[in-house]
Amino acid sequence: RFIVHLGSGRVAEMEGDCQKAMTAYREVVESNPNNRDVRVWIARCQLALGDAAVAEATLTEVLRVVPALPKARSLLAVVYAEMGRTDAAIEQLQAALAIWKDADPEYIPAREARTRLAELEAAG
User: Fold this and answer.
1) What's the Cα-to-Cα distance from 61 to each of 34, 53, 100, rounded to whole Å?
2) What is the spatial distance between Cα 111 and Cα 118, in angstroms, rounded to a whole number?
3) CA atoms within 13 A on the CB side of 41
4) 13: Cβ–Cβ under 8 A, 6 or more apart, which residues?
5) pLDDT confidence of residue 1
6) How confident is the model over 53-81, as pLDDT tens digits?
């Protein structure tokens, strides 16, 4: 059941149906409340649906429980940047990159975070 909901949520999200994806992701959380990655995916959908404040709250709760989750910090940086909170976005990206300091140069999430950080710092 867990795998079915997880898979259907990912497919729905890839197809651009974040409402359907969040429904499936919530089923995953219901069956596995400790799965923080799925909560990050829920926040990604919340942001895609235009609800940055709810995405921020979701990510803040995830990071309260697991502060060393770099993908949550990286997504929270995107949320903050969208809200116009550049300093907070930069702080989250720096924290994510500190966790990813030993990541391979090819690791896409870390590479994207470095690029995003450089863009935010350049924009000032």
Assistant:
1) 12, 12, 21
2) 11
3) 27
4) 21, 41, 44, 45
5) 81
6) 999 999 999 999 999 999 999 999 999 99
